Amino acid sequence: MADAAGRLTKLAEEVLGAPLPVRIRAWDRSESGPPGAPTLVIRHRRALRRLLFKPGELGLARAWVAGDLDIEGDLYEALDRLAGLIWERSDAPGPSRAALVRALARPEIRAAARELLLLAGAPVPPAPPAEELRRRRGPLHTLRRDKEAISHHYDVGNDFYALVLGPSMVYSCAYWESPQATLEDAQRDKLDLICRKLGLREGQRLLDVGCGWGSMVLHAAREYGVRAVGITLSEEQAGFARKRIAEAGLADLIEIRVQDYREIHDEPFDAISSVGMAEHVGRTQYAEYAAALYSLLKPGGRLLNHQIARRPVVDEEAYHVDEFIDRYVFPDGELAPVGRTVGQLEEAGFEVRDVEAIREHYALTLRSWVENLERHWDEAARLTSVGRARVWRLYMAASALSFERNRIGVNQVLAVRTPEPGDAGMPLRARDWTG
What we know:
The protein is an alpha/beta fold. The protein has 2 domains: about 120 residues, no CATH class; about 270 residues, Rossmann fold, CATH 3.40.50.150. Helix content is about 45%, strand content about 15%. It contains 17 helices and 11 strands. The strands form 2 sheets. A 7-stranded mixed β-sheet has the order 7-6-5-8-9-11-10. Strands 2-1-3-4 form a 4-stranded mixed β-sheet. Helix 1 runs antiparallel to helix 6 and helix 12 crosses helix 14. The longest helix is centred in the last third of the chain and has 19 residues. The protein starts with a helix and ends in a 19-residue tail after the last strand.
């Protein structure tokens, strides 16, 4: 069928009631849409079948990961233009659900839908890409299920992560002095900021929950002389971290465990850092998480909880994780508004002393990771798979835009297990962390 791009553009604009913001190039080499705009390339009609059998974000994600869909031109500009149609439908200008239903009832739209079926070809659903985690049944956030979820995300190869993250091997928001700073300097500054907020001193005992590849405990032991325990659920991360620690000559100060925070029984600790880990905890377990960390601290001990937050929604009970994120990136992960996080820490007994919002810093961090991935694309695809590399490119680029557009944020919450009669041991001046 000739001019597939023109036919698809017409159908999309009929349904949306607005001009399509990107150009389309179809598998028959036909093109349609605004000149000079980023181009959505439909490499195979199989992409249409994916959307027909799984409308919405998951169908698009499957087509992207499989390589049936691609983008030519600036990826960020394309995602920014498409955000209002795909990721921000609830508050974006455009047709309401009722308007869409009315549109689909119109004879010309029904005719266009039949045409879409013809364009899609074979009336069978394509198999999901191998990188997709199939939907699982049973209760969320059991010890076994959390370990499997962490393995899906992190056990894709230390060499792959080294390409994306750079030498620091820090997989969380960096702390930028300026956009011109290097990623390495920004990650070092973030680690040092956390150590200063925790008021670390030589001889203290630090617990790093979700220690990743060991960067936080290495910095704390090397620069502040603490004795540190790092825990992770990823076997690959733990092996990598132990090797780094041995090479640094710090094995006498640092222990790395493959262990869940619910399984620690050798408290107390003087300080706890939890950086980019609480997003995995889940709303049903967060009270237990906060209570567990409180119980592991000495009176007067500090917690630094570094956590991504989402914006509040009208119906919090209706909140659900995006299907692309759940199936391809962070299985069972959940974000909460920062107010809820602060409230639950306080309910566990903590005194919250400081909240620092650093969402612009995460946008800069993600753009640096995308740049690293694109620079080493062939090697990254070889180390994992082309589909996995495509997952990460889309996920990180879209996340950068979400931080820039204030769709999500990230906050460092400093809390204290304040002893009786109430001296938290904090300096009088705000953010003079060491007094």
